[in-house]
Design goal:
445 residues; alpha+beta; Cytochrome p450; 2 domains; 3-stranded antiparallel sheet; 17 helices; disordered N terminus; binds protoporphyrin IX containing FE
Length: 445
């Protein structure tokens, strides 16, 4: 009998699953993102199943009940740090998502101060300016690979709005270092060999640290409206503040957490808006009705159609398709036995694509989030693009603000289209991105 069975007095079932091919198991499918946007295992084994990859056993929690139970973490059995460290540990160490228990709670309470409505409103002005400068560099009319173009813009947001970087060459250098850190997370060879991805990531991390650290004293003394300054000044209700090391670690993690997620959200929104001109027109009309080139913080809620489109795009192409935890003790999941030290993934993609919860799940239908329909309410965990539980995205409103501010500007400048019948091919290797860069046609208004 396991520890859990002794404490709960219940008999737990063994989890169904299979190891996959001998020795390597499902490593290649895992690393290639083949198990992400796919419900084969769910259909075969149900919401909880096991497999082998990277030389260890993984439990996959699919569907709102199982994924929700992992993220609610009622038994305090699933740790985020040891789970995520497997992928991003050396490059994003001691970021908020990699902390657990009372330490995570303490850091989160301090960081919350950098995400109050007042702070967000303060970030919006420089954010709007950076977005405007980025979008102004696009051609007036003609084709544009949307994904790399918007990625450049969101990188500029990260380096300028987050860090307060000024000069172009400075932003370029930081962007490169930061991209190297992100790409290292999915490096197939996880050794510091010069020239390879893992090593570049370590060098990038050092560069970011060396850039941020010397500015701490100035940021602490000043009252800038960038996120870096906000973290330097953040205090919890109990008056606790971040140490210098904390600020640097959190900054580097925040850059990562904010950047790719906003980029893919904007990309999938552009894709669906280009394919659905009636929704594009509706969003544009709303934007023009605001009568301002740059959206103000208090006007964000008035972009109702854009909000529906954002939600539906995040449902269909969920920016973080799965989150990782590791069991810190023997525990249970929907009545199944989970041994200590097992890696567990909560698969958010499956949650958003089950027809049991979402009628006609592959159809782009933003109206399903409207007040009259609220299909997301059919199950409390049916819609989790920002996660759930204590690690739920702290930048949820920041992300929504950035995405809406960018789309508001874009729609007032351009009409966008894709050829009839075009379907965006998504690469799910780490976070989703279009394999072809999403070629769209811009028509200047
Ligand atoms: C559309 C944009 C975004 C999406 C879809 C998204 C998604 C997520 C998800 C799913 C998690 C939970 C991870 C887990 O449970 O392991 C998370 C956590 C987090 N996100 Fe976001 N995110 C977005 C934007 C942002 C932005 C803009 C920031 C910061 C400015 C941010 C900062 C964070 C942080 C710090 C955490 C860790 C929270 C914690 O552990 O307490 N995210 N995000």
């Amino acid at each position: 009998m396991t520890t859990t069975e002794r404490t709960t007095g219940t008999t737990l079932r063994d989890i169904p699953g299979d190891a996959g091919p001998p020795i390597i198991g499902y490593t290649l499918q895992f690393a290639g993102g083949k198990l992400t946007a796919d419900r084969t295992r769910y259909d075969k084994y149900g919401p909880v199943s096991w497999s082998r990859a990277f030389g260890r056993t993984w439990i996959s929690a699919q569907g709102p009940e199982a994924a929700g139970a992992v993220l609610s973490n009622r038994d305090h059995a699933f740790d985020s740090g040891p789970g995520w460290s497997f992928l991003i540990g050396p490059f994003f160490r001691r970021g908020l998502m990699l902390l657990d228990g009372p330490e995570h709670h303490r850091h989160r309470r301090i960081m919350q101060e950098a995400f109050t409505a007042q702070r967000l409103a303060g970030y919006l002005e420089p954010l709007n300016e950076t977005l405007a400068a980025g979008i102004a560099a696009w051609p007036r009319t003609g084709s544009l690979a949307f994904y790399p173009a918007i990625k450049q813009v969101t990188l500029d947001v990260a380096t300028r709005t987050f860090m307060g970087a000024q000069a172009d060459h400075e932003a370029d250098r930081l962007n490169r270092a930061f991209v190297d850190c992100v790409q290292a997370a999915t490096a197939p060879i996880r050794l510091p060999i010069p020239g390879l991805r893992w090593h570049k990531g370590l060098v990038g991390r050092r560069l970011l640290e060396n850039y941020l650290r010397p500015q701490l004293a100035e940021k602490r003394a000043g009252d800038g409206n960038d996120l870096f300054s906000a973290l330097c000044h953040a205090r919890s209700d109990e008056g606790e503040a971040f140490s210098d090391d904390d600020v640097v670690n959190h900054m580097i993690f925040l850059l990562m957490a904010a950047h790719d997620t906003s980029t893919i959200t904007l990309t999938s929104m552009a894709y669906y808006l280009a394919r659905n001109p009636e929704w594009q027109e509706r969003c544009r009309e709303e934007s023009f009705a605001l009568g301002t080139e740059h959206v103000a913080y208090d006007d964000l809620d008035r972009l109702v159609a854009l909000d529906l489109v954002m939600k539906e795009s995040m449902r269909l192409v969920v920016p973080v398709p799965g989150v990782i935890r590791r069991a810190n003790k023997d525990t249970e999941l929907l009545g199944y036995r989970v041994p200590a030290n097992t890696m567990v993934t909560a698969q958010l993609w499956t949650v958003h694509h089950l027809e049991e919860f979402w009628p006609d799940p592959e159809r782009f239908d933003p109206g399903r989030f409207s007040e009259e329909r609220r299909e997301d309410k059919v199950h409390r965990n049916a819609f989790m693009p920002f996660g759930h539980g204590v690690h739920k995205c702290i930048g949820m409103y920041f992300g929504g603000m950035e995405v809406k501010a960018a789309m508001h500007q874009l729609l007032q400048r351009y009409r966008i289209s894709v050829p009839a019948g075009y379907e965006m091919p998504v690469d799910w290797t780490s976070l989703p991105r279009p394999r072809d860069g999403l070629p769209i046609t811009l028509h200047r208004l």
